[in-house]
Write a structure and sequence with these properties.
There is one protein chain. The chain has 13 helices and 13 strands. The protein is α+β, with helices and mostly antiparallel strands. The chain has four domains: 74 residues, Orthogonal Bundle (Arc Repressor Mutant, subunit A); 42 residues, no CATH class; 92 residues, SH3 type barrels, CATH 2.30.30; 78 residues, Alpha-Beta Plaits (2-Layer Sandwich), CATH 3.30.70. The longest helix has 17 residues. The chain is elongated.
Amino acid sequence: MPRSAQQKLKILYLMDYLLQNTDEAHPATLAQIRAHLTGRGVAAERKSIYDDLESLREYGLDVVCTGAGRGSAYYVASRDFELPELKLLVDSVQASRFITHKKTAALIKKIERLASVHEARALQRQVYVTGRIKTMNESIYYNIDALHSGISLGRMIRFRYFDLDVDKLRRFRRNGAYYTVSPYALIWDSENYYLVAYDGEAAEIRNYRVDKMTGIAVLDVPRDGLEAFRSLDMAAYSRKVFGMFSGTEEPVRMRFDNHLVGAVLDRLGTDTMLIPDGDRHFTVTAALVPSPQFYAWLFGFGTMAEILGPAPVVQAMRAQLSAVAALYASGEDPSPSGSTNS
């Protein structure tokens, strides 16, 4: 590259060097800066570097000088993202089941570039990805982008929907036929991403796990179901629909032991009305979509929680319990030797 072109890039090389290599604990001396620029083929006189540093300050880069004279050193004091914020981003990426191991590693590398190389080491020390349960669907990252396009353009989408069999192979629902729906929102619930969409054939709002969708295409057809979506309170909706099962919402009355207040409010929301029921219990009436996950959540509290009504929901819970109890009704010892461990 011609010398004049290199000189024009000098201030950019200087900015990159400061951003990548300096922080409060690791300032760079003028000699180090000159050595870096020389290595890039750029002649750098002391006075010209001073001028460039001042230009970077005027541009908005928070360059701080420590010391004085030949003992001075320079570092970038503040950035768009502070180290605690980057750690939060790394933690979120690692905790996300919908992001695969491969994409997790790639995103963390990109996040590291928002810090100095020294702070990036601090981010690496908190990376514990191995062993986390992650989705096997590498295309989910691009699925989300396609779904956002459909939502922002106000267009219907089509896709195929699958489950995994015992051999971890895809088995498509509807014999592989496409679903055609109107997308409206994405919800991150219970460590999975769900699409909230209007199904025109069923005339209702339904949910689809994004990692089980494939072949997504945005259609040149305006979406419908806008009124149905507008009637939803999305914050309340994600709390009411356990496991993102679609279905009819109905008021369910429940009784809990008093010490379960925190667990109930975490699931149903802090605006849930709690009504004292004697000295040891309280009752709640919440609009929910009963699902296997709802019954499992309630069963997790054992005898400390009870469904009071309506009768069909009580009967459904009883049927769930009876079906599970039947699996253990033989009374036979499941251990091969017939013995128990003390």
